[in-house]
Automatic annotation (TrEMBL):
A pair of annexin repeats may form one binding site for calcium and phospholipid. GO terms for molecular function: calcium ion binding; calcium-dependent phospholipid binding; phosphatidylserine binding. Keywords: Annexin, Calcium, Calcium/phospholipid-binding, Repeat. PROSITE patterns: ANNEXIN_1, ANNEXIN_2. This is Annexin. The gene is ANXA5. The keyword Protease does not apply. It holds the Pfam family Annexin. GO terms for biological process: negative regulation of coagulation. InterPro entries: Annexin, Annexin_repeat, Annexin_repeat_CS, Annexin_sf, ANX5. GO terms for cellular component: cytoplasm; nucleus; plasma membrane; vesicle membrane. SMART domains: ANX. Belongs to the annexin family.
Length: 314
């Protein structure tokens, strides 16, 4: 499958030369932020890891520590994100989400609903060093925790079970709209265990049966974190790029910007499906992703984000 990312590996790549460019950009008085951001947004993550290794060999210093020493604020967070290997980035995001008092459920929801089965398995394996699987579910509880644990198993059925489409749709209808109260367990079992292509067919059957989109029913029948997670699972089953377009849109819509979310999505999707996210973004927003970043951010932070965005969709 061709990458739908905006960031590609650089053709005539030389890790040592890049390491030198970065060293010069940070040497002496003042920092050449522009040189840093232009270089790092035009290399793939794999290449950035090679630059990190070359930098250590040539200068005996850690590139990320040096970058942290020279940069600050949101721009620093973004650059450090770009310098982190994807798996380590997800694991760190999850660790930070469940560290300390309370859990940042938004991060758990986003990562566990949108990553591929293999990515979730890798996350769990990396996380397991010193932790159990259940630790990722943090101090969550109830149905929300149950669905998280199911998603952490990363063992969705493959393909479409033709014979179960109708019965799954009916089970969801009976568990929600047709019942006084809600049987959350049914929603969790079906949405947590069926493949994306199977679920898309179930959603169509559900619409015919009930007259509602499954999202409308989830909105009405559930609440809180469970609702957020179920909706994210449904949206990712329909289209992962559309899910991220919406996530980006709400990170910037209205007063203030949710920079943590903006950074996390731009870093993690720039080599995966940013082109598709941009076209989905255009369907839900009067402005392009490029224009929205332009209006919502500033300075080197904005410059780097726009390079990750990779172009405007007027």
């Amino acid at each position: 499958m061709a990458s739908r990312g905006t960031v590609k590996a650089s053709g005539n790549f030389n890790a040592n030369e890049d390491a030198e460019t970065l060293y010069k950009a940070m040497k002496g008085l003042g920092t050449d932020e522009d040189a840093i951001l232009q270089l790092l947004t035009s290399r793939s993550n794999t290449q950035r890891q090679q630059i990190k290794a070359a930098y250590k060999t040539l200068h005996g210093k850690d590139l990320v520590s040096d970058l942290k020493g020279e940069l600050g604020g949101k721009f620093e967070t973004l650059i450090v994100g770009l310098m982190t290997a994807p798996l380590a980035y997800d694991v760190t995001s999850l660790r930070n989400a469940i560290k300390g008092a309370g859990t940042d459920e938004k991060v758990l929801v986003e990562i566990l609903a949108s990553r591929t089965a293999q990515q979730v398995k890798d996350i769990v394996a990396a996380y397991r060093e010193g932790n159990t699987l259940e630790d990722i579910a943090g101090d969550t509880s109830g149905h929300f925790k149950r669905l998280l644990v199911i998603l952490l198993q990363a063992s969705r059925q493959q393909g479409v079970q033709q014979g179960n489409i109708e019965s799954d749709a009916q089970a969801l209808f009976k568990a929600g709209e047709q019942k006084f109260g809600t049987d959350e367990q049914q929603f969790i079992t079906i949405l947590g265990n069926r493949s994306a292509e199977h679920l898309r067919k179930v959603f169509d059957a559900y619409m015919k049966l009930s007259g509602y989109e499954i999202e409308e029913s989830i909105q009405r029948e559930t609440s809180g974190s469970l609702r957020d997670l179920l909706l994210a699972v449904v949206k990712c089953a329909r289209s992962v790029p559309a899910y991220f377009a919406e996530t980006l849109y709400y990170s910037m819509k209205g007063a203030g910007t949710d920079d943590q979310t903006l950074i996390r999505v731009m870093v993690t999707r720039s080599e995966v499906d940013m082109l598709d996210i941009r076209s989905e973004f255009r369907k839900i927003s009067p402005k392009s992703l490029h224009a929205m970043i332009m209006g919502d951010t500033g300075g080197d932070y904005r410059k780097a984000l726009l390079l990750l965005c990779g172009g405007d969709d007027a």
